[in-house]
Amino acid sequence: MTIVRALTAGLVAGVLGTAAMDAVWYLRYRRQAGTARLLEWEFAEAVNDWESASAPGQVGRRAAEFVLGETPPDTWARPATNLVHWATGVGWGLSYTVAKKVFPHARLLAVALGPAAWLTSYAILPLLKVYRPIWKYDARTLRDDLSAHLVFGLTAASAFAVIAPSRRRR
């Protein structure tokens, strides 16, 4: 497989995994009486300032503050939320591509992708003051977040397997 095909497969896998994870979160949101339409919710239409930005938006704010030396304007909150959210999913898809190249026969990679993304967020985001330490969250919050990340990982890994099948299965 060429490097371009592998990277494209990782990118597409990351996008599809992110969309699947977001579908889980959106269905949960609607079950809890959320009223926003799918695309409004997906692309953070309700985010008008940094206070209303989710974790990806807060990471974007921290990055912009680091580069600019000051808090960016509130008008950046929505685009930062979307950019960091989708870039994170794509980044994990690309990371999966690298892992498959290094460990081509490791079957557990598909199962490990989601939990790796989940656990990494609970390791990095507290350092950025975006999340609290993992032990400060209740079991239900952690379970819900982990299950959504499992959907991400399994969808991304499945998409990668379809787009860039291993030679063994051809």
TrEMBL record:
<protein>
    <recommendedName>
        <fullName>DUF1440 domain-containing protein</fullName>
    </recommendedName>
</protein>
<feature type="transmembrane region" description="Helical">
    <location>
        <begin position="6"/>
        <end position="27"/>
    </location>
</feature>
<keyword id="KW-1133">Transmembrane helix</keyword>
<keyword id="KW-0812">Transmembrane</keyword>
<keyword id="KW-0472">Membrane</keyword>
<feature type="transmembrane region" description="Helical">
    <location>
        <begin position="148"/>
        <end position="166"/>
    </location>
</feature>
<feature type="transmembrane region" description="Helical">
    <location>
        <begin position="108"/>
        <end position="128"/>
    </location>
</feature>
